[in-house]
Design a protein that fits this description.
- The structure holds two protein chains of two kinds.
- Helices cover 73% and strands 3% of the residues of chain A.
- Chain A is built from twelve helices and two strands, in the order αββααααααααααα.
- In chain A, strands 1-2 form a two-stranded antiparallel ribbon.
- In chain A, a hairpin with a 4-residue loop joins strand 1 (47-50) and strand 2 (55-58).
- Chain A is globular and about 75 Å long.
- By secondary structure, chain B is mostly helical.
- Chain B has a single domain (25-30, 41-264), classed as MetI-like (MetI-like fold), CATH 1.10.3720.10.
- Chain B is built from 13 helices and no strands.
- Chain B has helices at residues 2-28, 47-54, 58-89, 95-107, 114-123, 131-155, 158-166, 171-182, 184-200, 203-208, 217-222, 232-252, 254-264.
- The longest helix of chain B is centred in the N-terminal third of the chain and has 32 residues, at 58-89.
- The chains are: A mainly alpha, B mainly alpha.
- At the A-B interface, helix 1, helix 3, helix 4, helix 5 and helix 6 of A face helix 1, helix 3, helix 4, helix 5 and helix 6 of B.
Chain lengths: 295, 268
């Protein structure tokens, strides 16, 4: 954020009023659709609230006490972390490779740029269905082409890697575009000087490209971890958390508790737990952005 | 040799990115009895499209998605633009707080606010109603609009704004007549990104609608199933219908999108 500069024209009261009038609707909406709901959710999490039973009473922190011993919650947290670590690592690696390809003298750049936008643009829920078809145990292209005819989505241990693949496919374009934008900002002179000095391309990559990309990579890393902790659409459509809850992430467990079981009290507790995980990552993100702004 | 390697890499990446989509496209065009074949179909047919668009309420979902995405884009663009201008060009207290709020709100996990949104929307009598989706969609669309647009407004030199004021414009006139036209590319980019993310939204639409009457495209496809076995031909056709508009928009406005994505990630 740029610090506000001193301005030549002094602002009259009327002008100041305009400023607030312009910002007020969005401010009110932000409070209404973001701050209010999260506080409301926190309040709900202190209740026993089953919609169909019309039951609603205040129970203090009981839901949170239950959460600490809820094995399914810890499993979901573990699944989410597993998903986050592998998908984000793969996306960074592959994204860096594709970004380098975009920046290279490879032929077919226009085609490449168009192609990588395809997975990014399509709805995540639809990507779940596309891949469910590819992984279909009887007729799926993947199932039949890959050896062993494994039922990917129906076998614990295989379903999560499949879900990670879907996420990587969907998100790599975004990562590649961000890294590519940063790559283009690296001054050409640096490369020229290095190659005049006889540096190998690997050496150039390691000593020039990678250090200069570090801030962007950090931003992408945190941003993607954030997304991984919120992941819902594609996995819900692909496996709905199965088989045997092995792909059940925090968001999916929360959603099922809320909308399938109708338990709005404990569901809200899970929601707040998810929110807190994301909040911690968000704060890390703001830190990264802040330190980058000063650099 | 090096060129060959690069070409091969490009082919691989293009195949990886478009392959699953193309396979779905091919599936949607297969005759019913060749659905499970891995060979190229003996003939191509639009039968799956016909049955998904006429035999099911899917056409209604397409209309719903279009209405909800348009309404969300319009409202968020309007309120986002006024706020972003005020934040970027006017003296306003708490602008860091405002932007921080917008950023935080854009990072909320959607599922964290499903329960309050559900109860609120139900209390307003808007459950299973398209209007009951536009409001929740503001949770992600407005922060996105404020964040991207304030970047675009900040990029316009202060001098231009000051000149307008000295020439006798009120701040609002300066906004409407000078700044808004100058920020047009930014508005375009933002509109595209807003439209795509609203069109693609799944979680809220799944939670807040309960009948085919108000279902959006991603939900209709996510819940797609047949009586006995999954109708993969129809699913494929429906997916293509869901994907084509966004893919076309993305391809036509490629450059803008790349710029907008980079800005929205906070790098400017």
């Amino acid at each position: 954020m740029t610090p506000s500069r001193a301005r030549a024209t002094p602002f009259s009261t009327r002008d100041r009023l305009t400023a607030y009038l312009l910002a007020a609707p969005a401010g009110a909406l932000l409070v209404g659709v973001a701050l209010f709901p999260i506080l409301f959710a926190a309040w709900l999490s202190l209740h026993r609230l089953i919609l169909i039973l019309r039951e609603r009473r205040f129970i203090g922190l009981d839901n949170y006490a239950y959460l600490l011993h809820d094995q399914r919650f810890w499993t979901a947290l573990g699944n989410t972390a597993y998903f986050a670590v592998f998908s984000v690592t793969a996306e960074l690696g592959l994204g860096l490779a594709i970004a380098s390809l975009l920046a290279s003298a490879a032929p077919g750049q226009r085609l490449l740029r168009a192609a990588i936008l395809v997975p990014w643009a399509i709805p995540a829920a639809v990507s779940g269905k596309i891949w469910a078809w590819l992984f279909n145990p009887d007729y799926g292209l993947f199932t039949r082409v890959l050896p062993g005819s494994i039922n990917w989505l129906g076998t614990p241990g295989y379903a999560m890697p499949a879900a990670i693949l879907v996420d990587v496919w969907k998100t790599v374009p975004f990562v590649a575009l961000l890294i590519f934008a940063a790559l283009r900002n690296i001054p050409e002179d640096l490369y020229r000087a290095a190659s005049l000095d006889g540096a190998s391309s690997w050496r150039i990559f390691r000593s020039i490209t990678l250090p200069l990309l570090k801030p962007t990579l950090a931003v992408v890393l945190v941003l993607r971890t954030l997304d991984a902790f919120r992941v819902f659409d594609a996995i819900y459509v692909l496996t709905a958390g199965g088989p045997a809850n092995t792909t059940e992430t925090l968001a999916i467990y929360t959603y099922k508790t809320l909308m399938d079981a109708g338990d709005f009290g404990y569901g809200s507790t899970l929601a707040i737990a998810t929110f807190l995980c994301v909040l911690v990552i968000s704060i890390a993100y703001l830190r990264v952005l802040g330190s980058e702004g000063r650099a | 040799m090096r060129r060959l390697g690069l070409t091969l890499a490009v082919v691989l990446v293009v195949l990886f990115c478009t392959g699953p989509f193309l396979w779905q496209l091919l599936t949607s065009l297969r005759p019913e009895n060749e659905l499970t074949s891995l060979d190229f179909p003996s003939s191509l047919t639009l039968e799956s499209y016909r049955s998904v668009l006429t035999g099911r309420p899917f056409a209604r979902s397409v209309l719903n998605s279009f209405l909800v995405a348009s309404a969300t884009t319009a409202t968020s663009l309007f309120f986002g633009a006024t706020a972003a201008f005020a934040l970027a060009k006017l003296e306003i207290r708490g602008q860091r707080f405002f932007l921080g709020m917008a950023l935080l709100a854009s990072m909320f996990p959607g599922v964290a606010v499903v329960s309050p949104l559900y109860l609120t929307v139900r209390a307003l009598g808007l459950r299973d109603h398209l209007l009951g989706l536009v409001l929740p969609y503001t949770t992600f669309a407005l922060p996105m609009a404020v964040w991207i647009l304030s970047g675009f407004f900040r990029a316009i030199p202060d001098e231009i704004y000051r000149a307008a004021i000295i020439d006798g414009c009120s701040p609002f006139q300066a906004f409407r007549k000078i700044m808004l036209p100058l920020a047009a590319p930014g508005l375009g980019t933002t509109a595209i990104l807003l439209f795509i993310s609203s069109w693609n939204e799944f979680l809220y639409a799944l939670a807040l609608t309960s009948s085919a009457r108000s279902r959006t495209v991603p939900v209709a496809i996510g819940l797609f199933s047949g009586d006995h076995k999954e109708p993969w031909g129809e699913i494929a056709a429906a997916s293509v219908v869901a994907m084509l508009p966004v893919i076309l928009v993305a391809l036509v406005f490629q450059r803008w999108i790349a710029a907008g994505l980079t800005t929205s990630a906070g790098k400017q």
